Structures are given as structure tokens and as C-alpha cells.
């Protein structure tokens, strides 16, 4: 036996009401996400950029870790940076250590100097000139 017209109308109305109730939550959910967006943007990993603004080329050794003793931290690599170039290191709440050639004017391949270090927090964007 087919459903009565009244029941059919009631079912359609109920479905429509459920749809409108669920979509009425969307604007408030969108506002909540928009309010949380600036906080989420700053929560990303921190970055430290080492920039060569002085020499034709300079060799830099970079290490990242939690230790205050730079030599015991994880080696990221040894990079040669041409003038006006930078090396960006991503670190979240860790210490970025670097040391450059003691005398970059002599050319690549010289002995490395003393360690320099900077703590990089979440969301930080720092730049250091070598």
C-alpha cells in the first residue's frame, strides 16, 4: 500500500528540516576555523636562514639538535654559499649551530672557525648574516 500524501509531505519536510539544521552550523564552524587560523599559522616549524652578504663564497657547516654542545648535534651538512645567497634550516624548538671558514677571503677549503648557535622556536623566522 503506498504511503499517504500526508506522510510523504511530512517525510520531505523532516528531511528538509534536517538539512537546514545541519547547514546552519556551517557559518559558526567557519567562524571558529577562521579564528583559529592565525594561531595555527604560527605553530609551524621555525626557520633560520644563514645568509652570505660579504664574501664571494663561504663554506658553512650546520648542525641541529637539542644539545648545547654543537659538535654533538646532528650534522645537516657542509655547504658553500655564494654571495647574496642563503641557506634555510628548519628546526622546531631546537638549536641550530653553524660555523664558517675562519678566513673566507682566502678561498674555499680553509679551516672552520668557532661555533655560533641560535635557538629556533616554533613559528620563528630568523635571518643571520655570516
- How many DSSP helices? 1
- Named at the architecture level, the CATH assignment of the largest domain is Sandwich
Strand content: 35-45%
Distance between the terminal alpha carbons, to the nearest Å? Answer: 86 Å
Major beta sheet summary: 4 strands, antiparallel
The structure class reads: alpha+beta
* The named CATH superfamily of the largest domain: Carboxypeptidase-like, regulatory domain
Kindly identify the CATH topology of the largest domain: Immunoglobulin-like
**Tally of individual domains:** 2
What is the level 1 CATH name of the largest domain?
Mainly Beta
Question: Could you list some keywords that capture this structure?
Answer:
globular, Immunoglobulin-like, 7 strands, 2 domains, 130 residues, four-stranded antiparallel sheet, alpha+beta
Structure description:
- By secondary structure, this protein is of the alpha+beta class.
- The protein has two domains: 1-41; 46-129, Carboxypeptidase-like, regulatory domain (Immunoglobulin-like, Sandwich).
- It has one helix at 5-41; strands spanning 46-52, 57-65, 74-82, 85-91, 94-100, 116-120, 125-129.
- Strand 2 (57-65) and strand 3 (74-82) form a beta hairpin.
- Mean pLDDT is 77; it is low at 13-41.
Amino acid at each position: 500500500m503506498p504511503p499517504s500524501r500526508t506522510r510523504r509531505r511530512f517525510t520531505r519536510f523532516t528531511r528538509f528540516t534536517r538539512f537546514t539544521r545541519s547547514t546552519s552550523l556551517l557559518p559558526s564552524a567557519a567562524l571558529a576555523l577562521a579564528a583559529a587560523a592565525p594561531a595555527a599559522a604560527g605553530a609551524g616549524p621555525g626557520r633560520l636562514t644563514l645568509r652570505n652578504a660579504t664574501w664571494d663564497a663561504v663554506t658553512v657547516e650546520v648542525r641541529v639538535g637539542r644539545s648545547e654542545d654543537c659538535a654533538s648535534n646532528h650534522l645537516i651538512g657542509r655547504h658553500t654559499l655564494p654571495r647574496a645567497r642563503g641557506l634555510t634550516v628548519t628546526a622546531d624548538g631546537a638549536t641550530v649551530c653553524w660555523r664558517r671558514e675562519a678566513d673566507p677571503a682566502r678561498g674555499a677549503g680553509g679551516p672552520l672557525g668557532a661555533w655560533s648557535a641560535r635557538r629556533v622556536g616554533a613559528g620563528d623566522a630568523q635571518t643571520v648574516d655570516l
